[in-house]
Design brief:
beta-glucosidase activity; signal; alpha/beta; globular; EC 3.2.1.21; TIM Barrel; two-stranded antiparallel sheet; 499 residues; GH_1_N_CS; binds 2-acetamido-2-deoxy-beta-D-glucopyranose; GH
Length: 499
């Protein structure tokens, strides 16, 4: 009886498993994986690099930091070799502004320039397409000191001069540029909550030295948008005809689900979408902030002049999304206390229920939610999923059997395929992260990597996890029906017996 049942189960799994493979995606769909400069390079004080606000923030708090990280600065050739073995068609990485231009503006550091030229050269000769992020949280500290960094409009000119160097020096080999990484998280973490660089806030009970959570997040977001628009304009004017690339902008996206079917909760979901996503996507698509946001934030929300609105509108050739999970939203009935300053979160006025790790993995619906929403609300713009992945505590990973991660990636890539088949103009997908990195909120405790990095080993040895083998099989497989749940179990068995 048991064996009959299990045969039936296997049969159901086989027909039920959503087997798919890489060839089910459009021919030019970009598959890759991602890293970022501060989280991978290390060599923080070498060859002329100067600190960014991220170095300063972590050092001031005595936290884990990226001083050494994966030492990618010295190990880049070895890592490109791992990418080749994995069969990675594309790599997303970022440029450290203060390595290339240590003071934020002015002289270019020849050693920094050489490093990025060498790295990009290695990728290109191995047929790996570089997707470059220009700003990934790491503003040169000197610009923060001089005029308050992103809080000042002076940043627009300096950012534009920096990207001009990047386009000029690397643009023959780089066709995909992402100006700003996770603009909303940078803004909320750095200027509302104060828990990431530059660590500013004015929330009661938080230990920020200075800041203003009711105004700065909006000012910084405004300047990020204007700086992006200026970079994009420069690219169109000076480089696009010759280099033929495209310039996008990225946000951390979240799937939102109402906690009840009440009208209040439905409105709360829309408000959450407006504040967390529409905040920057609507100016890029329509040239202005969402109406609801303007109504709630009032005079604290900067206003686009007509000219700025025209410049920002249409300035993103694609939207980059970093998509990990969904949350349950309910209307926040508490009215903000009038004697206390408002902040970004009291402006949104919703309660978000964040998920435990197991629910996080189950929030597959969030990928579809976000892709469908962007398609319908914004007229189906081109999308690159610049990050997707799942964290695991590093001590559980010693045996490298990250089956949970394989199941997560398999399910999420399947959800992307469904969205593409339903008309979403999604053009690429990058696993976060290629290897274990220094992580923004968890240091070295949790990691997302497909390769394990032994951070206690002086050589920082890298070893493939199950997920690296799995992704590699996916990337190299042609029209073999791709692994459903049976295949994952088999892969795991094969992996254990080989290691
Ligand atoms: C934040 O800025 C606003 C507008 O300038 C001001 O009214 C408010 O008092 C400031 N809040 C703090 C905590 O400094
Ligand atoms: C969204 O929440 C509702 C309850 O309001 C629940 O019934 C539904 O299953 C949830 N949807 C998803 C996709 O989680
Ligand atoms: C497919 O797209 C259509 C049109 O945008 C939409 O109405 C529908 O809900 C989508 N289906 C799924 C399963 O997401
Ligand atoms: C990491 O490296 C240290 C030092 O070389 C070694 O003792 C340890 O066994 C390694 N850990 C793993 C999980 O490989
Ligand atoms: C997939 O197809 C390509 C080109 O047709 C071929 O070079 C490669 O060997 C194939 N890979 C596998 C795993 O069959
Ligand atoms: C792979 O797909 C192509 C096109 O659909 C088909 O012609 C070919 O026979 C397939 N090869 C295998 C080994 O299934
Ligand atoms: C596992 O190994 C067997 C025997 O080598 C092989 O036939 C099978 O394709 C492998 N499965 C996976 C999912 O790699």
């Amino acid at each position: 009886m048991d064996s009959v049942l299990s045969l039936i189960t296997i049969f159901l799994l086989l027909i039920g498993s959503s087997g798919f493979n890489k060839n089910d995606f459009p021919k030019d769909f970009a598959f890759g994986s991602a890293i970022s400069a501060y989280q991978w390079e290390g060599a923080a004080n070498e060859d002329g690099r100067k600190p960014s606000i991220w170095d300063t923030f972590l050092h001031s708090r005595n936290q884990d930091n990226g001083d050494t990280a994966c030492d990618g600065y010295h190990k880049y050739k070895e890592d490109v070799q791992l990418m080749v073995e994995t069969g990675l068609p594309a790599l997303r990485f970022s440029i450290s502004w203060s390595r290339l231009i240590p003071n934020g503006r002015g002289l270019v550091n020849p050693k920094g320039l050489q490093f990025y030229n060498n790295f990009i050269h290695q990728l290109v000769i191995h047929g790996i397409e570089p997707h470059v992020t220009l700003f990934h949280y790491d503003l040169p500290q000197s610009l923060e000191d001089e005029y308050g960094g992103w809080r000042s409009r002076r940043i627009i000119k300096d950012f534009t001069a920096y990207v001009d160097v990047c386009f000029r020096e690397f643009g023959n080999n780089v066709k995909f540029w992402n100006t700003i990484n996770e603009a909303n998280v940078f803004t909320i973490g750095g200027y509302n909550d104060g828990n990431s660089a530059p660590g500013r806030c004015s929330l009661p009970g938080k230990s920020c030295l200075s800041g203003n959570s009711s105004t700065e997040p909006y000012i910084v977001a405004h300047n990020l948008l204007l700086a992006h628009a200026s970079a994009s304009r420069l690219y169109k004017k000076k480089y696009k005809d010759i280099q033929g690339g495209s310039v996008g902008f990225s946000m951390f996206t979240i799937g939102f689900n109402a906690s009840t079917s009440s009208k209040d909760d439905e409105l709360a979901v829309q408000r959450a979408r407006d504040f967390y996503m529409g905040w920057m996507f609507e100016p890029l698509i329509f040239g202005d902030y969402p109406e609801e946001m303007k109504r709630i934030v009032g005079s604290r929300l900067p206003v686009f002049t007509e000219e700025e609105s025209e410049q920002v509108k249409g300035s993103a050739d694609f939207l980059g999304i970093n998509q990990y999970f969904g949350v349950v939203v309910s209307n926040n009935k508490l009215k903000p206390c009038p004697s206390r300053n408002t902040d970004f979160k009291s402006d949104v006025g919703v309660s978000l229920t964040f998920l435990s790790l197991s629910e996080y993995d189950a929030s597959l619906w969030a990928m579809k939610d976000v892709l469908e929403y962007i398609k319908q609300r914004y007229g189906n713009p081109p999308i690159y999923i610049l990050e997707n992945g799942t964290p695991m505590k590093r001590d559980l990973q010693l045996q490298l059997k990250d089956t949970k991660r394989v199941e997560y990636l398999n399910a999420y890539i399947g959800a992307v395929l469904k969205a593409v088949r339903n008309g979403s103009d999604t053009r690429g997908y990058f696993v976060w992260s290629f290897m274990d990195l220094f992580e923004i909120l968890s240091g070295y405790e949790f990691s997302f990597g497909m390769y394990y990095v032994n951070f206690s080993d002086p050589h920082l040895k890298r070893s493939p996890k199950l997920s690296a083998q799995w992704y590699s099989a996916f990337l190299k497989g042609n029209n073999t029906t791709f692994l459903g749940s049976q295949g994952i179990t088999q892969l795991q068995t094969n992996f254990s017996s080989s290691s």
